[in-house]
Design brief:
alpha+beta; 8-stranded mixed beta sheet
Length: 743
């Protein structure tokens, strides 16, 4: 009889309608699955699964694959019901990227393994409790037309719709302020709650028990985000915290352990992470069973919202600040610290190190100790010696002479471009210098990139494999840019006008050096043989950053669309839409800046250096205890980003005879007869050069960075007596404040 039932189930599944292509993709991404994961499970090609999800002409699976695919989608739909779409009312509401190496700005560190275990605990995964009626006395009715100051209601324009999970019906976060003696919590969606808490410990209790704040998990094996409470200056005063930090406290990144508020928390049996009570404080109790108790605090007046990445967000009124942080939380994730910390935490949230398994005897789901497939696991791994930054303990075994400076043959130098050259006589006859900026360049470099998931293996005289992540010692000095392959054809170029793709400064290599896989693969692509002398490779690998890229890309595109810049505009309309887009909604412009900073900062955290800590060279530092301390992944992303740009430059030069005069990271400058990118980009009937520069908002496409005159460029270089001064650094607004030293 069971065989008959199975046959009936298969028959129904073979004829039942499948979700739309967009819904298929949403369900896959929600569970943290890649196209390769699904293809492997269903025994089909990756391209087949991609075709099933195609938004233009989706194909339909057939036979047993359809039955299995339908079963997969049904189970995922039960785990991830279709969310209420985020909507914007269209009512207008009243600094660029974080460096790839992070500085000493105060922020919340990624938690240590011990702290994380105390908060999470290998506990049963609880089901969502039924929604309880919201007490009428704790809410204030709001109006979408009321604005602060002068009103006790929050602005709703541009705020995402509420989460469908009843545990988090009031959104991911609240900005707590004091008005007319009353403590109010401004949530997303215009909701304002009365806060009865008289002390900080009671505020934490209220947040966990009554506020209904938080965010659903981003992937199947993950956990929901902890609620975020943002304290205004008035709220700091109400709860006994200083409005600003002293210089000593800024340097320490926290208030003293003897502060009265810290003592209050200790008496109430709350704990702080090793970072203490700083701008991004995490307050928790060790988990008991399925009871997770943890609240994230953000204190803008302590520089939690760094103006380099969050603009003037710290000065916004509570309702507007809740809107900015709420949009960011709904599209990226609830902030866990600086944009850099959040970028790194997003990687982990999408690929949790461990996952829940069902106890066969009790049927209860418990967190497993085994590594989740596709994740980095819960334990850190040592980098290869060539990947280690100076002072790393792995270098102790090499017994290097004191004060020894490692060169390219000993150390991996995969960094972004900082290159410039003098203009030719022909270029000096042109009138304009036009800068192009690659949108979300490092995010695009991460997309589809195969990276190592485990520890490296040392190999002598290996055969190069472009699909194998690793670091390779190889001599690329024989690659001659005056004759390279573009596609399948050899072309001749003026190699003296091109930067080398193999070094950040654009200098041609002089001998063997360490390179990440994408760099060596590009040498092959240009038509040259490569013979590595040795390598550190990672046989356990995967496309770890795909989901990370997709979420940040979608967040960026959605926010830019809200600002009037859509992904399907013509080149002319795109340039028009980008003109003045920041003024259309300054609050959403802050979100755009924060999203871009999340990309660069998150990648920078993969090779975080010591941050004080009393560190001495040769000793481990705090960041090394993280499984996400992975300089090899950072190097691979930067390598691929630099190669992507060089490929476009070569194709543009081969087709037009035009060469860049300066490159800084993701910005490239050309001399042009006209002030617009369309004056030198080879568009034909609205279509760009295949593989070259294309105007548009999608990651990897380019926008207009700025235009200055050729006379300006020559005058600046003459004034500083620097014929190779990098004009890409100043092309946006023409301001040059000092001699360019490349830093």
């Amino acid at each position: 009889m069971s065989e008959m039932f199975d046959a009936v189930d298969a028959l129904v599944a073979s004829r039942s309608a499948l979700p739309s292509a967009e819904e298929r993709k949403r369900l896959r991404v929600a569970h943290g699955l890649t196209l390769d994961d699904v293809a492997g499970a269903l025994h089909v090609r990756r391209a087949t699964v991609s075709a099933w999800e195609s938004s233009k002409k989706p194909t339909e699976p057939r036979g047993p694959e359809r039955e299995a695919y339908a079963r997969l989608l049904k189970q995922l739909a039960e785990l991830y019901p279709a969310p209420v779409p985020a909507t914007f009312t269209g009512v207008p509401a009243p600094a660029e990227a974080q460096p790839l190496s992070t500085g000493p700005a105060p922020e919340a560190a990624v938690m240590t393994a011990t702290e994380n275990a105390q908060i999470l605990a290998p506990a049963p995964v609880a089901a969502a409790p039924a929604a309880a009626p919201r007490p009428a006395s704790t809410t204030r009715p709001t109006s979408s037309t009321s604005r602060r100051p002068g009103a006790k209601k929050a602005a709703t324009a541009g705020t995402p719709a509420g989460e469908s999970d009843p545990r988090f019906e009031n959104g991911p976060l609240a900005v707590v302020d004091v008005e007319d003696g009353k403590v109010l919590a401004y949530c997303t969606g215009g909701l304002v709650l009365d806060v009865p808490a008289k002390s900080l410990p009671s505020l934490v209790d209220w947040t966990l028990k009554e506020a209904k704040l938080g965010q659903p998990k981003l992937s199947g094996p993950g956990r929901p985000a902890d609620p975020l409470i943002v304290l205004t200056e008035a709220a700091c005063e109400r709860y006994g915290l200083p409005v600003s930090l002293t210089e000593e406290e800024k340097h320490a990144g926290r208030i003293p352990e003897g502060h009265k508020v810290v003592k209050q928390l200790v008496r109430a049996e709350w704990k702080l992470t090793k970072r203490g009570f700083g701008p991004w404080a995490r307050i928790y109790r060790p988990a008991k069973g399925s009871d997770r108790q943890c609240v994230q605090l953000c204190i803008p007046s302590w520089n939690a919202l760094d103006a380099r990445f969050w603009g003037d967000a710290a000065q916004l009124p509570p309702a507007e600040l809740a809107r900015v942080l709420g949009v960011y939380a709904s599209r990226v994730m609830t902030p866990r610290g600086s944009t850099a910390v959040t970028g790194l935490e997003l990687m982990t949230a999408l690929h949790p190190p461990t996952h829940a398994v069902r106890d066969e005897e009790t049927g209860v789901l418990r967190q497993a100790e085994t590594k989740t497939p596709g994740s980095l696991g819960k334990d850190p791994v040592d980098c290869a010696p060539c990947e280690a930054p100076d002072g790393h303990p792995v270098l102790n075994a090499l017994d290097l002479p004191r004060f020894h400076v490692r060169g390219p043959g000993e150390k991996l130098f995969e960094e972004a471009y900082d290159w410039a050259r003098p203009m030719t006589d022909a270029e000096c006859t042109l009138r304009h210098l036009v800068g192009l900026d690659v949108n979300m360049a490092f995010a695009a470099g991460a997309n589809g990139l195969n990276v190592g998931l485990g520890e490296p293996t040392h190999v002598k005289a290996p055969a190069f494999d472009p699909k194998l992540p690793g670091s390779w010692l190889v001599d690329l000095s024989h690659v001659d840019l005056s004759k390279v392959k573009v596609g399948k054809e050899w072309v001749e170029l003026d190699g003296s006008l091109l930067p080398s793709p193999f070094t950040p400064k654009g200098d041609r290599p002089t001998g063997p050096a360490w390179y990440a896989t994408p760099t060596v693969a590009y040498a092959q692509e240009l038509g040259y043989e490569v013979r590595p002398a040795e390598a550190w490779v990672r046989y356990e690998n995967g496309r770890y950053l795909d989901g990370w890229y997709s979420r940040l890309r979608d967040a960026y595109l959605a926010t830019m669309a809200d600002l009037g810049v859509d992904a399907d505009l013509s080149p002319e309309d795109f340039l028009t839409a980008m003109d003045g887009y920041k003024e259309r909604d300054p609050e959403l412009t802050i979100v755009v800046s924060a999203i871009k900073a999340t990309v660069k900062g998150g990648l920078g955290k993969l090779r975080e250096r010591p941050r004080g800590e009393g560190w001495r060279p040769g000793e481990p530092w705090r960041a090394l205890s993280r499984p996400t301390w992975r300089p090899d992944i950072r190097a691979a992303v930067i390598s691929r980003t630099r190669i992507n740009l060089h490929r476009k430059i070569v194709k543009h030069a081969a087709f037009t005879g035009q060469y860049p005069i300066a490159i800084l990271s993701d910005c490239v400058v050309y001399a042009s007869s006209g002030p617009s990118p369309l004056d030198f980009l080879p568009y034909r009937e609205g279509k760009p050069l295949p593989g070259g520069f294309k105007l548009g908002i999608n990651p990897g496409l380019v926008k207009h960075e700025g235009t200055q005159s050729v006379l300006w460029g020559e005058e600046v270089r003459e004034r500083f007596n620097a014929p190779e001064l990098n004009l890409a650094r100043s092309i946006k607004d023409g301001t040059v404040t000092d001699v360019d030293n490349g830093e």
